[in-house]
Amino acid sequence: MITYRTNKSPFMRNTFLAGLIVILFSSCGPNPTKSRFHLENAIEQIYLAKNVEAIEELELAIKYDPQSYEAYYYRGACKRNLKDYDGAIADYNKSIELNPLYAEPYFSLAILYDFLQDSDLACFYYLKAEELGKPNIGDYTKRCK
Question: Are residues 83 and 38 in the same domain?
Answer without folding.
Answer: yes
